[in-house]
UniProtKB/TrEMBL annotation, chains A, B:
Every Casparian strip membrane protein domain range: 36-172
Assembly and oligomerization: Homodimer and heterodimers.
Name of the protein described by the UniProt record: CASP-like protein
Pfam families: CASP_dom
Bilayer topology term: Multi-pass membrane protein
Similarity comment: family membership: Belongs to the Casparian strip membrane proteins (CASP) family.
Segments traversing the membrane: 39-60, 80-103, 163-182
Amino acid sequence: MRSPQAEAAAGGFGNETPPLPGTRFRSTVSLHKLRRFNILILVFRFAAFCFSLASAIFMFTNSKDSDLPSWQDFDAFRFVAVANAIVALYSLMEIGASIWEILRASTFLPEIIQVWFDFGHDQVFAYVLLSANSAGASLARTLKETDTCTASNTFCIQSDISIALGFAGFLFIGFSSLLSGFRVANFIINYSGFYL
Amino acid sequence: MRSPQAEAAAGGFGNETPPLPGTRFRSTVSLHKLRRFNILILVFRFAAFCFSLASAIFMFTNSKDSDLPSWQDFDAFRFVAVANAIVALYSLMEIGASIWEILRASTFLPEIIQVWFDFGHDQVFAYVLLSANSAGASLARTLKETDTCTASNTFCIQSDISIALGFAGFLFIGFSSLLSGFRVANFIINYSGFYL
């Protein structure tokens, strides 16, 4: 008969199935934990989607009159609009993948591809969004000293709002990238058996 | 007698010592791996230190003549100079901690504090540095269209070089933050027994 310690070490599985790192994934407790984790990621992605979409819309509609300055006239504002639009699109896609994962308890792409795809894109898009918003904020600040803002104060205020929303979007995609980074590390450590 | 499977599941340890997650840390193979990992972090930190120090020096010395424009006159350039100086200082400190860890095979602060300290600061400083450099690049681009650059072309070129060096510094502190993020995840998974 096996000792209680050996039983515990084997994770409660029978002798025929020694616990491979991946098998912990299947236990009910882990599934609950994974579900909570996925719901948290979903919430962050949804927030990132809302903020970056709002930011992109605010910037894209920032040229009502042909006499007034337009967002297309400024490199940094073009960068803000496009970066936020891309992040909104990516977040929408990831919301779909996240819902799929919560409902079916398996990833949309094969797991190794999915975790690296999510993490890589989260990291890159978080940096791109921050870079765009910082460049936009710097330009908006410079414009305040020129006569662009005296000619059309609405243009400057709308740009400021768009950039502020963009920063909020960055915050949430940054949180998502932390969580998806944890998933990658978890995947590497548990599946490849790589321990420090 | 215990079956070979149970023996394997218990990780080759006796019945008295079921393998706690942390005990893998002590094996010689792991120590070698940890040493390689720490040397890689040290290389990244050294590169980040060199680039951000060079960037800060280039920006701080960008006002030789009182008639010409100075970096202090522009918010974004002040941000670039200060952010790079802070990152250079932080990197120097982390180089010290890294060398301590390689030589003594233990962290400078208690391990839980050290891994979170490194990761948190790496993340924040990577974002701060990127933000500063993006804002600086945006301003430098705007300045090219004004008469500041025609009055003193050297000022604009030196700013550009400083910003480019700052982006290189960001790249290396970004890599460091990936590695220290992996260390945090490894710490959470192996020491607190948290598995997804």
